[in-house]
Structure formats: structure tokens, C-alpha cells
Write a structure and sequence with these properties.
Radius of gyration: 22 Å
Strand order of the largest sheet: 1-3-2
Number of helices: 5
Largest sheet: 3 strands, antiparallel
Shape: elongated
Helix content: 55-70%
Low-confidence stretches: none
Order of helices and strands: HHEHHEEH
Amino acid sequence: MLNEAASLDRVFQALADPTRRSMVERLSRGPASVSELARPFAMSLAAIVQHLKVLEACGLVRSEKIGRVRACRLEPQALTAVEQWAGERRRTWEHRLDRLGDYLAEQPDEWDTEDEK
């Protein structure tokens, strides 16, 4: 459980940066070379590679050298962990809000304000 939490922390830290989120968004449409990923950004190729290293370290991205080109692709398993975590939070709050709604529906109209009467 602790290892899963640390892994999730690394994914969230990686996704906290807008450049890395943009890279993940681009890779969600299919593999891309480092040059293709760098194209929309006004930064050096070295800076792009640093961002990719962060994404690779947390397991969001895999890259491989094909000839002279480094191809990158998204690893959806890392996003699955984020999706599961967010889904658990959503289900908890939906349940709580449903209970609150039920409670309020059972209450007499004493919650009405003087303006509404």
C-alpha cells in the first residue's frame, strides 16, 4: 500500500507541470518522437528531455531508440492508478451527498427562510 501511494505521488507530481501534461495529452493520440513532442514548446531539446525523464521515472511514458530517433509512447497503466484513486474519492463524496440529500428531504420545511414564506 505504501509503495502504491509513493507511485501515485510521483505520477501526480509529474502531472503537476503543464508541459508534461501537454506531452501526455499528445502521447494519448499515439507515439511521437522527442522532436515532435518538443515542437510546440519554446524551450531547448535538453529541457524537453528532462521533462520526459520525469514522465518515464513515474511510469507514464516509455521511450526507445529506433535508429537515430527516440520514440515515446504513453503507458496507460500509470493513468489507471490515478483513475482508480479519483474514482474512489468520487464514490465516497457521491455517497455522502446522497445521504445529505436524503436527510434534507426527510426534514420538515423548517429550513425555509422567512423570505420564502
